C-alpha cells in the first residue's frame, strides 16, 4: 500500500509529465486496433453488408432473429460445445491427472517430462499441425497403414463427419497440453509439502492424499485453468481446423470462431460475421462474469 | 509399502506414455525431412530410413527466400515485442506512480485488449490497413499487433512496479534525478527479470502467429514470415503431396524457437507461467 503523503510530495517535484502522457501511446493503439474494431463489429452486426458490394441495408436485429431459427447456426453452436467438451478433457482433465502423477517422480524425471511436453507449445501451430495431415491421410498415411497392419476397418478421420471433430481436437490437445501441464504443476507444487507428508506419516495412500489434500487445495488453480480452457478452447482448435479441414467435410468441423473467420474473411459477408462475433463476445463476457461471481463467493466463504 | 511401489510404477508408466505420444509427431516430422522423397510413401510406418539424406533441406534452401522469410519473422516478432514493451513500460509507470481519475477505465481497456478474440478485430483492422495502403507490408503486419494483448505486458509490469520501494524513489528525487532518469536508469534496470520474461512471452507468441501474417503478408513473397512461407508451400504442395520439402521447411522454420527454448528453457517456462497466471 502506498502512503498518500509520500505519493503527493513525490509527484510535486516531477510535474513535467502527466500520467496521460505515459498512457497515451498504449491507449492510442488499443483504441485504434481493439476498441474501434469492437465498436465497428457491434455497428456492422445491425447491417446487411458485404465487402464486395458497397450497398448495404439496415436490418436491425434481423441477423440475430435469423440465428434463432437457422439450423446451420444451431449446428455451429452444437459443434462449438462438442469442441469445448473435448478440450476440457484434453487440456484440462488430462494435464491435471498427469500433474498428480508427476508428483510421484524425482526432480530430474519431472524436468524431463516438463521439457518434452512443452515442446509443441514453442512450435508454430500451422507448422506443428501439418504433420498430422499425413498421419490422417486416408491412403498411405500412418494411421491408415497401422489400421491395415492390425487388420482393422479403416476410419476416415478427417473425411468423415463423425470422426472429424475428435480428430481435430486430438491435434489441438497435443499442441496445447504441455502449456496447461506447466500451469497445473506450478499450482500443485505450491501446496505445502508438510501437509502431504503429515498425511503420509498417518498412513494415507496416494489416492487419499490426492482426493483429501491435493485436489481441494488445488481448487483455485483448477478453476482458473478451467476458465482458460473454456475461453481459449475455440482458439486452440482454430489453426488445426484451418490446416486440417478448413471446416469440412461440409462444415462438420467448424466452430463459432472459425465460422466468423470464414464468413468475414473468406465470403466477405461482414454483416453475418459481425453478428456472430457479437454472439461470441456475449458468450465470453458471460463466462468471465461467472468467473468473477464464483471467485467472489469463494472469498466470502473463506471469511 | 506395496501400494507405494505400485503408484510409483503407474506414475512413471503414464508419464512415459504421454512423453512418447507428444514426441511421435515431432519424430516423424524430423524423420520425414531426412528421407528420400520416394521413401515417404514407400515406407510410411518407420519414422526414419537409412541412410539419412539432407537433400530435402538443400532443395528448400536452394529455392531461395528463406533468409528473407527469417528476417521478416525477426522484424515482425521483434517489432511487436519492442513496441509493446516500450508502451507497456510507460503505461505501467503512469499507472503505478500516479493517481488519476479514469484509472479503472484504463484497466478495463487493457483487459479488453487481452480478452477480445482475434476473429472479431481482424476484418476491421484489415480494412483499416487497406485504406492506408499498408497491405503486404511489414509495417501493416506490426502496427495492429501492437494493440492486440497489449494489456499482458502492462499488467505484468504494473505488478512489478507496484512493489518498487518508494524510499528509493524519494532518494533518487532528493539526489536530483529527473523523472526520466528515475524511470530508465533505476526502475527499468531493477525490473529487468520481469521485462525479460514479458519479452520472451511476446516474442514466441508473435513469432508463431499465423493467420494475421498470412492475411496481411500472404499476397507478396517479399513479406512472408517463416510460418507463412511454410503455409504457402503447404497449400501449393497439397495436390502433389510434396512432403519431403514441406517437412524440411517445417523443421527449418521451427529451429530458431527450438534453439531459443532449449538454450533458455527455465526462462521460457517461467515467462509462459507468468503470462498465463498473471495475465
Give the biggest beta sheet of chain B. Answer: none
Mean pLDDT of chain B: 87
Strand content of chain A: under 5%
**How many H/I helical runs of chain B?**
15
Through-space gap between termini of chain A: 22 Å
Q: Helicity range of the residues of chain B? A: over 70%
| Count, helices of chain A | 12
Report the major sheet of chain A.
2 strands, antiparallel
Intertermini distance of chain B = 43 Å
Q: Regions of chain A with pLDDT < 50 over 5+ consecutive residues?
A: 1-13, 299-303
Global geometry of chain B: globular
One letter per element, helices H and strands E, the order of chain B comes to HHHHHHHHHHHHHHH
What does the radius of gyration of chain B come to? 24 Å
- At the fourth CATH level, what is the homologous superfamily of chain A? MetI-like
| Spans where pLDDT lies below 50 across 5 or more residues of chain B | none
Query: Would you identify the CATH H-level superfamily of the largest domain in chain B?
Result: MetI-like
Give the topology.
The complex is a heterodimer of chains A (303) and B (279).
Chain A: H1 4-13, H2 19-44, E1 47-50, E2 53-58, H3 62-69, H4 71-102, H5 107-118, H6 125-136, H7 142-149, H8 164-189, H9 193-201, H10 206-244, H11 256-266, H12 270-302
Antiparallel strand pairs in A: 1-2
Chain B: H1 2-33, H2 37-42, H3 55-62, H4 66-97, H5 103-115, H6 118-131, H7 138-147, H8 150-162, H9 166-174, H10 179-190, H11 192-207, H12 211-217, H13 226-237, H14 243-263, H15 265-278
Helix pairs in contact in B: 1-14, 3-14, 4-7, 4-8, 4-11, 4-13, 5-8, 8-11, 11-15, 13-14
Amino acid at each position: 500500500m502506498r502512503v498518500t503523503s509520500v505519493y503527493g510530495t513525490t509527484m510535486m517535484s516531477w510535474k513535467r509529465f502527466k500520467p496521460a502522457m505515459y498512457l497515451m501511446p498504449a491507449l492510442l493503439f488499443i483504441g485504434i486496433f481493439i476498441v474501434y474494431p469492437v465498436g465497428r463489429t457491434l455497428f456492422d452486426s445491425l447491417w446487411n453488408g458485404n465487402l464486395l458490394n458497397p450497398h448495404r441495408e439496415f436490418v436491425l436485429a434481423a441477423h440475430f432473429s435469423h440465428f434463432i431459427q437457422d439450423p446451420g447456426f444451431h449446428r455451429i453452436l452444437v459443434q462449438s460445445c462438442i469442441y469445448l467438451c473435448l478440450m476440457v478433457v484434453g487440456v484440462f482433465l488430462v494435464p491435471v491427472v498427469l500433474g498428480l502423477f508427476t508428483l510421484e517422480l524425482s526432480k530430474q524425471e519431472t524436468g524431463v517430462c516438463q521439457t518434452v511436453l512443452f515442446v509443441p507449445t514453442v512450435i508454430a501451430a500451422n507448422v506443428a499441425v501439418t504433420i498430422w495431415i499425413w498421419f490422417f491421410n486416408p491412403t498411405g498415411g500412418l494411421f491408415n497403414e497401422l489400421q491395415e497392419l492390425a487388420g482393422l476397418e479403416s476410419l476416415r478421420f478427417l473425411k468423415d463427419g463423425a470422426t472429424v471433430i475428435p480428430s481435430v481436437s486430438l491435434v489441438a490437445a497435443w499442441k496445447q497440453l504441455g502449456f496447461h501441464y506447466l500451469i497445473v504443476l506450478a499450482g500443485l507444487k505450491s501446496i505445502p509439502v508438510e501437509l502431504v507428508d503429515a498425511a503420509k506419516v498417518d498412513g494415507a495412500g496416494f489416492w487419499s492424499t490426492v482426493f483429501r489434500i491435493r485436489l481441494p487445495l488445488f481448487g483455485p488453480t483448477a478453476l482458473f485453468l478451467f476458465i482458460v480452457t473454456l475461453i481459449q478452447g475455440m482458439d486452440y482448435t482454430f489453426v488445426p481446423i484451418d490446416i486440417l479441414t478448413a471446416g469440412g467435410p461440409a462444415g462438420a468441423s467448424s466452430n463459432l470462431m472459425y465460422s466468423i473467420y470464414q464468413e468475414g474473411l473468406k465470403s466477405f459477408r461482414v454483416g453475418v460475421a459481425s453478428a456472430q462475433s457479437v454472439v461470441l463476445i456475449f458468450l465470453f463476457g458471460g463466462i468471465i462474469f461467472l468467473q468473477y461471481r464464483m471467485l467472489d463467493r469463494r472469498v466470502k466463504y473463506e471469511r | 509399502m506395496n501400494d507405494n511401489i505400485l503408484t510409483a510404477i503407474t506414475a512413471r508408466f503414464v508419464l512415459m506414455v504421454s512423453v512418447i505420444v507428444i514426441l511421435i509427431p515431432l519424430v516423424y516430422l524430423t524423420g520425414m525431412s531426412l528421407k528420400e522423397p520416394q521413401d515417404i510413401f514407400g515406407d510410411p510406418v518407420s519414422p526414419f530410413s537409412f541412410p539419412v539424406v539432407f537433400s530435402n533441406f538443400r532443395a528448400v534452401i536452394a529455392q531461395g527466400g528463406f533468409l528473407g522469410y527469417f528476417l521478416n519473422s525477426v522484424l515482425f516478432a521483434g517489432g511487436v515485442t519492442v513496441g509493446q514493451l516500450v508502451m507497456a513500460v510507460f503505461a505501467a509507470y503512469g499507472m503505478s506512480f500516479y493517481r488519476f481519475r479514469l484509472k479503472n477505465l484504463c484497466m478495463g481497456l487493457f483487459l479488453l485488449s487481452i480478452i477480445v478474440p482475434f476473429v472479431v478485430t481482424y476484418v476491421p483492422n484489415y480494412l483499416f490497413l487497406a485504406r492506408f495502403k499498408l497491405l503486404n507490408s511489414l509495417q501493416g503486419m506490426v502496427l495492429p499487433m501492437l494493440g492486440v494483448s497489449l494489456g499482458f505486458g502492462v499488467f505484468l509490469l504494473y505488478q512489478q512496479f507496484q512493489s518498487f520501494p518508494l524510499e528509493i524513489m524519494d532518494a533518487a528525487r532528493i539526489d536530483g534525478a529527473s523523472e526520466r532518469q528515475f524511470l530508465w536508469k533505476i526502475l527499468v534496470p531493477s525490473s529487468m527479470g520481469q521485462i525479460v520474461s514479458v519479452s520472451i512471452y511476446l516474442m514466441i507468441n508473435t513469432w508463431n502467429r499465423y493467420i494475421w501474417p498470412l492475411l496481411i503478408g500472404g499476397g507478396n513473397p517479399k513479406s512472408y514470415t517463416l510460418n507463412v512461407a511454410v503455409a504457402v508451400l503447404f497449400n501449393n504442395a497439397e495436390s502433389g503431396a510434396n512432403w519431403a520439402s514441406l517437412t524440411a521447411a517445417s523443421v527449418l522454420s521451427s529451429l530458431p524457437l527450438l534453439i531459443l527454448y532449449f538454450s533458455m528453457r527455465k526462462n521460457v517456462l517461467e515467462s509462459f507461467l507468468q503470462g498465463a497466471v498473471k495475465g
